[in-house]
């Protein structure tokens, strides 16, 4: 998979893309990243990328011309890539969306900044995504969330594909409680069933605990 990110702040991505699973994905040649500096497509001698909004209002709005040019350059390198715009008004991001995106050969993530986009920029998007009902300074952190959640699903990135099978949200529920050594810590003990060796009983317990945890913390998920 090739992931291209259109951003005014490419320097934000360096530490994230060079760490942990994202670094391993690149070393294994399972994923590649390209950071496209939007400023390189700015207009005029000052490389202008934004302007004041029609109708008045605070802040600056990203102009359409630089983003259309940057997206065209990205598409030329990877024509079948899905174009995704990071925006608080997009559809809520979910594990199912991550699984769907992980099947694509390429993604182009467009990060907004300042007061937002010229609305015409959204015509480029195959998908508009929001990682939550709150507003960030820009789309870069949201893009990092999507990159991490998608790349870890690519076959071969994690040590075992079973690592993602029972994770939170993978089956619509929160993940069951996990334990490791020591068996007893500050009067808190590992449940006996997990030490029983009875795999059927363990699976049943995990399912029950997953439903219980979801009911307590995220009852809205049970309704879905």
Q: Which structural category do the helix and sheet elements fall into?
A: alpha/beta
Number of helices: 7
With strands numbered from the N-terminus, the spatial order across the biggest sheet is 2-1-6-5-8
Q: For the CA atoms, what is the radius of gyration?
A: 21 Å
Low-confidence blocks of residues: none
Known CATH architecture of the largest domain: 3-Layer(aba) Sandwich
Order of helices and strands: EHHEEEHEHEEEHEEHH
Number of strands: 10
Keywords summarizing the entry:
7 helices, Alpha/beta knot, alpha/beta, 224 residues, 30% helix, five-stranded parallel beta sheet, 10 strands, elongated
Structure characterization notes:
The chain folds into two domains: 2-151, Alpha/beta knot, CATH 3.40.1280; 166-222, Trp Operon Repressor, Chain A. The protein is built from seven helices and ten strands. It has helices at 14-17, 20-27, 64-77, 95-101, 140-151, 199-217, 219-222; strands at residues 2-7, 32-37, 50-51, 61-62, 82-92, 106-111, 116-117, 127-130, 184-185, 188-189. A hairpin with a 2-residue loop joins strand 9 and strand 10 (188-189). The longest helix is centred in the last third of the chain and has 19 residues, at 199-217.
Protein topology:
Blueprint: E1 2-7, H1 14-17, H2 20-27, E2 32-37, E3 50-51, E4 61-62, H3 64-77, E5 82-92, H4 95-101, E6 106-111, E7 116-117, E8 127-130, H5 140-151, E9 184-185, E10 188-189, H6 199-217, H7 219-222
Parallel strand pairs: 1-2, 1-6, 4-7, 5-6, 5-8
Antiparallel strand pairs: 3-4, 9-10
């Amino acid at each position: 998979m090739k992931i291209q990110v259109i951003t005014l702040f490419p320097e934000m991505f360096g530490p994230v893309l060079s760490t942990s699973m994202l670094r391993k994905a690149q070393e294994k040649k399972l994923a590649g990243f390209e950071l496209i500096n939007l400023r390189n497509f700015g207009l005029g001698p000052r490389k202008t990328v934004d302007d004041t909004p029609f109708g008045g209002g605070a802040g600056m709005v990203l102009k359409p011309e630089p983003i259309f040019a940057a997206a065209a350059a990205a598409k030329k390198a990877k024509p079948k890539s899905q174009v995704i715009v990071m925006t608080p008004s997009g559809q809520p991001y979910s594990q199912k969306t991550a699984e769907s995106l992980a099947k694509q050969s390429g993604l182009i993530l467009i990060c907004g900044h300042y007061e937002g986009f010229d609305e015409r920029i959204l015509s480029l998007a195959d998908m508009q995504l929001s990682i939550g009902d709150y507003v960030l300074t820009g789309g870069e952190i949201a893009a990092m969330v999507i990159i991490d959640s998608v790349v870890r699903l690519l076959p071969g990135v994690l040590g075992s594909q079973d690592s993602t099978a029972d994770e939170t949200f993978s089956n619509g529920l929160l993940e069951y409680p996990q334990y490791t050594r020591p068996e007893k810590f500050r009067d808190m003990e590992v449940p006996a069933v997990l030490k029983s060796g009875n795999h059927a009983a363990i699976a049943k317990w995990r399912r029950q605990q997953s439903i219980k945890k979801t009911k307590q913390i995220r009852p809205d998920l049970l309704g879905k």
